[in-house]
Amino acid sequence: MINAADLPDTIPVFPLPGALMLPRARLPLHIFEPRYLAMIEDCMKTKHRLIGMIQPRETPAAGNRPAEKRLQAIGCAGRLTGFSETEDGRYMITLSGASRFRVREEVQGFTPYRRCLVDWAPFVRDLGPTEDDPAFRRGEFMDLLGRYFTQMNLSTDWDSLKEAEPELLINSLSMLCPFSPEDKQALLEAPTLDTRRETLVTLIEFALRGGADEEMMQ
């Protein structure tokens, strides 16, 4: 467990489109770019071992100004809890979700990777106990999920899903389902577990309604 007092003001960030990290969830990553290999090595030297996962957003070119990859305002930090190195020097890591954060400003410096000054205060609940969702209706949700997985040709361990606690189930699906980066951001920014579940259901229902039409248009 990480306490609020242990959270640093500045963290390295890993901008990765479509990658979603949520509190108390785990995200495996394959690291091979030299700048991010350096980030992992520097991270392991710190006490907190936190890396911020955040979505990039591209600002279109205008006039003489080239396109620019900026960062979303909100990301989620994970603690480096698993690490292995391949024979060719790549890293296989696991991040365990700690807390979301709001970017205050990007820090300019001499590291090859990006760093941000962040504010943890809006997400103090992330450091608390597991969230519950009293309005969660597992039967209806699993029926909807079954139709979605069939339409998307996805497979899963249904026995594990049926037994998973609401937070683990909802957060894991939010991270794993093939939604757009914008939809992943909406799931990240959902203030509570029940609003994330409602957002997830909306996205699944939208995919079920639009999937056939999209296939006909292609």
From TrEMBL:
Residues 11-208 form the Lon N-terminal domain. GO terms for molecular function: peptidase activity. InterPro entries: Lon_prtase_N (IPR003111), Lon_prtase_N_sf (IPR046336), PUA-like_sf (IPR015947). Coiled coil: none annotated. GO terms for biological process: proteolysis. Keywords: Hydrolase, Protease. PANTHER family: ATP-DEPENDENT PROTEASE LA (LON) DOMAIN PROTEIN (PTHR46732:SF8). This is ATP-dependent protease. It comes from Tabrizicola piscis.
